[in-house]
Amino acid sequence: MRPANIVTSVADVLAGIAIACVLSSTFFEVWPSALLLCISTACLYGGGIVFNDVFDADLDKIERPERAIPSGRVSLQEATILGMVLLGAGIILALISSQTSGIFAAAISVCALVYNKWGKHHPFFGPLNMGMCRGLNLLLGISIIAGAVAHWYVLAIAPVAYIFSITMTSRGEVHGGNKTNLYIAAFLYAAVIGFITYFSYTNNRLLWSLVFLLPFAWMIFKPLLKAIQEPIGKNIGKAVKAGVISLILMDASWAVTFSSILPAIVIACLLPVSMWLSKTFAVT
Hints:
Pfam families: UbiA. InterPro entries: Prenyltransferase_related, UbiA_prenyltransferase, UbiA_sf. It comes from Mucilaginibacter gynuensis. The chain crosses the membrane at residues 7-28, 34-55, 76-96, 102-118, 138-162, 182-199, 206-225, 245-271. The longest helix has 25 residues, at 31-55. This protein has 14 helices and no strands. Helix 1 packs antiparallel against helix 14 and helix 10 (206-229) packs antiparallel against helix 12 (247-258). It has a single domain, classed as Tetracycline Repressor, domain 2, CATH 1.10.357.140. It is mostly helical.
């Protein structure tokens, strides 16, 4: 289920909630629905990852025999049931919050299954497919306020582009990668940072945003530049891991750009939790 990654999906939803609350309620007045959506996204992400291992079971016997299914710790049937329960729970919890949230949760489930079964095998549409999952996850958080999605849907471009670059980079994790993909990832990373900076500047929140954007940039570019210098599997794996976990800082910068410093700090506090979990559980 990749617990460290699940924490980053919760950060996405919290960022979306912070963005949506610009329109009406404050961040802490919507906590019942916020809690539902946080648990929902945790279920959706966990279910999607479980099905990733279900569909990759035969390939993992060769490339990653240490994973739960090929190692024999979990049967294929048990994993399939778990994945179905998690995705179903994620959709139901989101529906309890609102019909719009339920639709986004269902869309995330569909995108995750499409990626696991077909998308991951395509060099362009696979990364785009995975990016859409994260973009929809941000919108899941924004959907906490009726009508907010119509105002802020364009913000989903950032996680789509960011995850596109990470997914494209991860393709070289097992056998090593090519520098072209890594250079494209670096360009997209810079574009995402510029995108967030634009909104923080127009909202007169640039200085607060930089508190999170600068360490975010350092965390993602340091391992990526090392991977560019030596594109071997080990270095690429570290770049991918850093990219996934650093999503929390990107989400914190969204929160402070559209809300206040307090929600951003709450989100940023998830970073050490994710990093701690990544020491025990696989990220990629």
